[in-house]
Amino acid sequence: MLSILAFLVLAGFSMQSPVSGEEIYNSRCASCHDQFNARIPPREALQKLSATRILRTLDFGLMMSVAYPLRRDEREAVSNFLGTPGDTRIPATAFCPADRRILSNGAGGNWNGWSPSVSNTRYQTAENTGLTADQIRRLKLKWALGFPGDVTAFAAPTVWKGTLFVGSAGGVIEAVDANTGCLYWIFQANGPVRAAPLLAPVTSGSPDRTLLIGDQIGWFYSLDARTGKLRWQRRVESHEATRLTATAAAENGVVFVPAASWEETRALDAKYPCCTFRGSVTALRIRDGSVVWKSYMVGVPGKTGVTSTGTERYGPSGAGIWSQTYRR
């Protein structure tokens, strides 16, 4: 029994009753939002917002630094307690007409993943882009795309054969026509998406492409690049504080997924037993998401002592991998 409890602690989970959004609000939020302050919206104003909008503000908006100590399920609970159901929908007019085919342009100007080459220099020649440095000053806006309900945009896009793939802070992954800005398809991930998507063959030598991308709560996805349908999804780390910010790398039918976390922010809570997350790289088969191997950056954490308030401490931990590294 003791070994099972130890495993749960090291995995970043705790055995507790269901999270109460009202209790979290009263203990974490009421001291500001239940008081009169012209610079702070009162509870009545928050209750007019959608739960999704509040969650996005806690995840990556103005309240991000305040919400750092809260686990994801706690942020969701307080958002659902305060906000109203529903969210802004993408209108049908935003989608491409049936006669406009996805991935139908030539290969010029492609930018796949974090960098268009394995050297990771994030550079393209004028020949590849069809654009010179002198022409940049004369560029004009052709179209603009917004993410309904989002409070920030931070994801790097991928462009392949005239189609732009990009994720949002609200977890929406979109395939966009690069010429007109219309949408081919959308997919809702479990968490916010910050990393650049990566297109790779489904199997070695296959012309079919899959879109590989991770989210900010540890899930990694393979989507059909033409339809947006889910091929498979896998949570690469069980730790609650896992976040995938790095673009994956792929070669010979295998995708390499780096993992980081924001567990150190949990230590703002004096009762949190910090820290047990370990940075890792997980190799998955592109065809089905099965694990080929996994490598951790530090050893298995163990109890190292207690804080002055009696909270247990653990180590070693950390060494998250935040960005893509790729060498042949």
Task: Give an account of the 3D structure.
The protein has helices at 2-10, 21-33, 43-46, 51-60, 64-67, 72-82, 126-129, 133-136, and strands spanning 158-160, 163-167, 172-177, 183-188, 198-201, 209-214, 219-224, 230-235, 242-243, 249-251, 254-261, 280-285, 291-296, 302-306, 312-315. Strand 1 and strand 2 (163-167) form a beta hairpin. The protein has 2 domains: 2-82, Cytochrome Bc1 Complex, Chain D, domain 2 (Orthogonal Bundle), CATH 1.10.760; 108-315, Quinoprotein alcohol dehydrogenase-like superfamily (Methanol Dehydrogenase, Chain A). Helix 2 crosses helix 6 (72-82) and helix 4 (51-60) runs antiparallel to helix 6 (72-82). The termini are far apart. The strands form 4 sheets. Strands 9, 10, 11, 12 and 13 form a 5-stranded antiparallel sheet that branches. The relative contact order is 0.11. By secondary structure, it is of the alpha+beta class. The longest helix is centred in the first third of the chain and has 13 residues, at 21-33. It is globular.
